[in-house]
User: Which sequence fits this backbone?
């Protein structure tokens, strides 16, 4: 079937049924991910003009590589699958784009060659590729993880195995995934004296995507490790606390309700998940011609305004816990701000928000409007 995306044309094997395209080599649901990738590459090149080489490490149809090559990146497409490699070659040719195409295990390639930008987009966890990527990427590492159940603690053992951390299944599950992934990548990078700074991260539908600016310096690796810590979550009243530092000081009893059903997660990334200015640059770089332009810009806008707190609340879940009907999110946030707290929407979904108020303070600040 023929697919058009970001101004390029692809031929991918598969059937088009009722407008939904299905192919093992091309996932239309990842178009937002790819549009943001291209916008991020453009914004990053403004920031770091010497960045030239881009490795599409898991090329499949070659869609990312073709789109980057059309933007004048010096592209290498790699895939371990023979059919994918042939397809990527055809799609490059179809769009008059040049790139090096490698048919091999990308871990071996990354250990042999250094790239300015590496894009990891595997099925499931990216961690088997993390060591080779962080040690052989000069400037920007782009990573997708689609194993959201292990990341958020729903598949606990798998999460522990893949990420060498303890994830917990909470009401902020997508954010748990973001922070477990960033923690694991920061720790992998630190082993090679590389520091990571997440300049853009989002959790969208069934994946987490992050862009890490790398600094090859032990002090930068130390600074990234300083962003790690633990999260404690009360299953009864939804109170949560962040505990910075690698040495955990676990909560035994909830300071809000006295409950003892406390979940402990970590090490997680407690630092910022994006650079606001960079996200604004990305938003401004998204052209109208991108299929997901509106969605991409909206996502960037929410990310720019989102507070840095390491967990978000779900307003509906809180109100259910209090046995009260939820009101409009704008009114709810206005009450928090009027009471002197910070409040923002979160990009994790319609009823999610962030605040510096504790669960008890939220209850008090919004009581008049909800009761
Ligand atoms: C999710 S698909 C990539 C999708 C593509 N990047 C896109 O945006 O449409 C994952 C690809 O990774 C490839 N892959 C898996 N393990 C690999 C490895 N060790 N080295 C290179 N490619 C690998 C698979 O063959 C598959 O084509």
Assistant:
């Amino acid at each position: 079937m023929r697919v058009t995306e970001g101004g390029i044309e692809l031929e991918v094997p598969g059937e088009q049924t009722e407008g939904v395209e299905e192919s093992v080599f091309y996932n239309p649901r990842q178009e937002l991910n790819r549009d943001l990738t291209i916008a991020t590459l453009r914004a990053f090149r403004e920031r770091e003009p010497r960045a030239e080489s881009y490795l599409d490490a898991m090329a499949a149809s070659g869609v990312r590589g073709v789109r980057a090559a059309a933007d004048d990146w010096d592209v290498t497409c790699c895939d371990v699958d023979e059919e994918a490699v042939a397809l990527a070659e055809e799609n490059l040719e179809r769009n008059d784009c040049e790139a090096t195409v490698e048919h091999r295990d990308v871990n071996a390639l990354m250990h042999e060659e250094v790239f300015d930008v590496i894009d990891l987009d595997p099925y499931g966890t990216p961690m088997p590729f993390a060591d080779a990527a962080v040690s052989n990427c000069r400037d920007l590492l782009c990573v997708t993880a689609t194993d959201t159940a292990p990341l958020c603690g729903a598949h606990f053992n798998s999460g522990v195995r893949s990420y060498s951390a303890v994830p917990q299944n909470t009401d902020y599950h997508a954010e748990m995934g973001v922070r477990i992934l960033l923690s694991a990548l920061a720790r992998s990078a630190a082993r090679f004296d590389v520091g990571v700074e997440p300049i853009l991260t989002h959790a969208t539908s069934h994946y987490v995507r992050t862009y890490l600016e790398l600094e090859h310096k032990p002090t930068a690796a130390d600074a990234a490790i300083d962003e790690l810590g633990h999260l404690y979550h009360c299953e009864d009243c939804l109170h949560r606390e962040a505990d910075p530092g690698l040495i955990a000081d676990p909560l035994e009893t909830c300071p809000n309700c006295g409950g003892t059903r406390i979940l402990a997660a970590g090490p997680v990334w407690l630092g910022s998940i994006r650079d606001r200015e960079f996200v604004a640059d990305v938003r401004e770089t998204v052209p109208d011609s991108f299929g997901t332009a509106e969605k991409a810009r909206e996502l960037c806008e929410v990310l720019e305004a989102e507070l840095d707190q390491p967990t978000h609340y779900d307003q509906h879940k809180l109100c259910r816990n209090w046995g009260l009907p939820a009101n409009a999110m704008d009114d709810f946030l206005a009450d928090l701000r009027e009471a002197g707290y910070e409040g923002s929407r979160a990009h994790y979904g319609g009823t999610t928000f962030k605040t510096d108020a504790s669960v008890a303070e939220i209850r008090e600040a919004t009581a008049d409007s909800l009761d």
